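Second opinion, please. Pick holes in both lines of this record:
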Amino acid sequence: MAVQPQVMTASDFDAFTLLPENSERLFEFIAGEIVEVPSNPYSSMVGAKILFHIMRFVTENKVAGYVTGEAGGYVVSGERYAPDVAFISAARQPELPYEGYNPNAPDLAVEVVSPSDSEKRLRIKLANYLAAGTTVWVVYPQNKEVEVYAPGQPARILTEQQTLDGGAALPGFQLPLAGIFQSG
């Protein structure tokens, strides 16, 4: 849902998010509009499972980088996004900031689509992620599918019977999709 219908600047957005009444809320800045990030338990569970598997892979394989959840925002093409899961390599980001949105786009962004998400806003985000060099996994829990977008490559659609790979963003990462769509 849009919080502010008028178009504003990124600086206005940053000031808005620092207001005391917004300290416990999560927002994105998409195409000049402030958007409160929607949530639902099932989509959150799917995102948490993906985060768990990426975090385990990064830890077990000693991959130098950082995995963030939905509260870890990023500046992407001047906008502010809060992907459900993201990875950024330590080579590109030696240390994560402690406040605000990360000034660098992630290497990998995972967007878990909720029924209340706007397809138009999702497509804007996708175009900006790709322009910034970010690989994007768009997860559709209700359809049990994942769309994979990598800069300079054709899009792929994977079903729950297939295995998602980390591509250039996380070489060697493999995730059978059937497990992330199961409850429990």
